[in-house]
Amino acid sequence: MRRRREKKRRPPFPLPHALVLLPTPHGWRYSLLDVRSGMTCGALPDVPAEADPRKARAAAARMVTQLVRQFHQTDVDVVWEPPHDDRSWTAQVRVLGGAGKESQP
Q1: Residues 35, 23: contact at Cβ < 8 Å?
Q2: CA-to-CA distance for 4 and 20, rounded, in angstroms?
Q3: How far apart are CA 93 and CA 61, in angstroms?
Q4: Helix (H), strand (E), coil (C) string for 44-85
Q5: Is residue 93 a contact partner of residue 78, using CB atoms and an 8 Å limit?
Q6: What does the pLDDT look like over 15-33, one tens digit per residue?
Q7: Which of 21, 30, 36 is nearest to 81 (CA)?
Q8: First CA to last CA across the chain, in angstroms?
Q9: Rounded Cα–Cα distance for residues 47 and 61 (Å)
Q10: What are φ and ψ of residue 39, in 5° steps?
């Protein structure tokens, strides 16, 4: 009798490397760009449209770090770039403590 080889389960998404945050009349929206050039978009839950941008950035960073920790067992840091205007914010997502499970660009 042969043993079945167990396949390693891949996380449902690759490691993110960038984050974009946008305010809209209906709430704060985000886009996560991953290391394979894919994109995941959505709305920040529990962050009202009129929330201060600092609170929205903190909520977005918290969401990303929790998702990466849960699905990749890796810690990341979200580093916000200086804003060019008051309508969007971008950040780099950096793996802490060495290389992650997937290579970063």
Answers
A1: no
A2: 43
A3: 9
A4: CCCCCCCCCHHHHHHHHHHHHHHHHHHHHCCCEEEEECCCCC
A5: yes
A6: 999 999 999 999 999 999 9
A7: 21
A8: 44
A9: 13
A10: -140, 140
Summarised one tens digit per residue, pLDDT across range 34-76 is: 999 999 999 999 899 999 999 999 999 999 999 999 999 999 9
Buried b (16+ CB within 10 A) or exposed e, 17-51: bbbbbebeeebbbbbbbbbeeeeeeeebeebeeeb
Q: CB within 8 A of 73, min separation 6: which ones?
A: 101
Q: Which residue has the higher pLDDT, 86 or 101?
A: 86
Q: Which tokens in the block code for residue 37?
A: 């050039």
Amino acid at 30: Y
Tokens of 65: 């770090």
Residue 27 and residue 50: Cα distance in Å, rounded? 8
CB 13 within 8 A of CB 82: no
